[in-house]
Amino acid sequence: MSAPAGQTLGLEMEMAVARRDDGASHPVDGYFARLARIKAGRGEAPDMARIDGRDVGLSVAAGESGLDNGFNLLETAFAPVAAAEGGLAELARRARRELEDAQLALEAEGATVLNVSEHPACTLDPGWYARVQVPRPIYRELVGHREWLHRVGIDAKAQNSPCTSVDVRQAARALNVVLGLAPASVALFANSPLESGRVTGFKENRLTVWDRMFRYSRYAGDHRLQRLPERPFADLGDYFRWMFGPGTASRCLPLAAEDGYKSAVGVYLQGGPSLSRFLASDGWPGLRTDTGGQVTIVPRGGHFEYSQFAHFLDARWRYRLAEPPALDELRAAWQRPGGIEDLYLRLGAAGYIEGRAPGAGFADAQLVEEAGRAVAATIVMAPSALQLGLMRNLGEAEALLREWGWLRLRDLRAEAMRHALDHDAVWALARDTLAVAEGGLADGERHWLDYARYAVDTRSTGADRLLRLWREREDDPDRLGAVCRARAVIPL
Q: Signal sequence span per UniProt (predicted)?
C-alpha cells in the first residue's frame, strides 16, 4: 500500500492544562512568551498572535500553537506533512517535540498537560467562563446573538483531530466513512469519564457538549447540525444542502470580501434565513456587528466557502479554493449531481477530512506501566493512523458501513459515549474498523495503530484507567492533585 500522490497529514492537538500541586484547571499566563523563546532557541522564527493585548498563540513553519476556547486549553494545529516528508512518522516527531516544548514552558507556572479529554474537576460557572475564555470577536455572535451555552466547554474538553487530505472527487465518500464509523473512534479514544469532580456515567463525556451547547440556541437548526442525518451524503452538493438548507440559519457573514473566518466585522442577516436562501437573493438586510447599523449585504460566491464551519458533527470536510466561485456558477453547480465537485476541481480546491470523534489522549506513567513504552508512544498518532487507513481503504470501509447500517451506527454513537468498549456491539465495530484501517496502511505504518489494538485487546480505554485512579483515591484529601500528577503527560 502506498500513499496517493500529494496526500498530506495534519493534526489539531488539544491539551488540557492543570496545576501540578492541586490539579486545578489552569489558565496559562506568560506561556506563549516562554514557548516563543524555546522555539527561537532552536532556530525557528515565532510570530506572536495577540487579542486585546494578550498573547493567545504563535506561529512557526511547523504550525500554530494557540488556544481553543479558553486559556486553560492549549491547541496546536500542525502544518500538513506530505508522505514524502515522512507521513505519520514525521507528524509523530513534530507532535512529540510540541509536547516537550509545552511541558517545558508550563514548568515555570507549576503546570502540566493532562492525559484527559476533559478536566476531571473544573467548574462551568459563568464567573470562571468570563475569566478564562479567549476574547475572540466570534464569541459575541455565538453567545450574544445565537445564544449558545458556550461555557459548557470551558472545562478544557479536548479532542485529538486527525486531518487527512482527500481529492475533492472522493470527499463525500470519505466524509461518510469517517462519520459513520465514528463510534469506533469515540470508544477507542474515550478519555473523559469525569466532570466537575463527579463520575458522569459516560466514558466520553466530552461529546455531550454539543447537545448541551445548542439545545436552547436562538435557531433550532443549530441543534440539528450536531446530529448525524438519517442517510449518508450523496455528494458534496447534498452535504451543503443539509448544512445550509431550510431549517438552518446562516452564520454571521463578513462585511467585506477580504474578511476571513472569525472576522471582527460582520453582518447578522435579519430574520435568520438559511445560507441557501440568502445566496438565492439579490441582497439581504442585516445589522453590522460593530455598530449595529443597518446594511444590505449582497451575496457572493465566497460566502459559501466562508460558511463551511457551520456544523458540529464528528467529522468535517474543510477546504480552500484557489479562487472564489462566481455566484451564478455556484448556484448552477449546486443543482447538479456532482456539480460542486466539478466546479471545485476547476477552482483548485484543496481539502481534508477533519476527524472530531477521538478524545485527546497522551502517554502518562500509568499507560507506560500497563501497556509498555512502545504502545504508549503511539497513542497520539493512533487516531491519525486509523483515519488514514480507512480513507486509503475506502471501498472496504464503505462495505463495512453498509454491513453495519447507517442508522444502527448513528444509534451506536450514544452507546460508545456511555460505555466505550464495554458495549459488545461497539467493541465488535471497533475490531472491524481497526481491521479495515490496517488494510489501508503500509507495512511500516501499521505500528501506529498499536495503542488502538491494545485498547481493543484489553477492552480498556483512557477513561477506564482514569476511573480506576479516581476510585482508588476516594478517601485521599489530595485526590484531584494525586490523580492529575499521575496523568501528567510524558512526551514519547
A: none
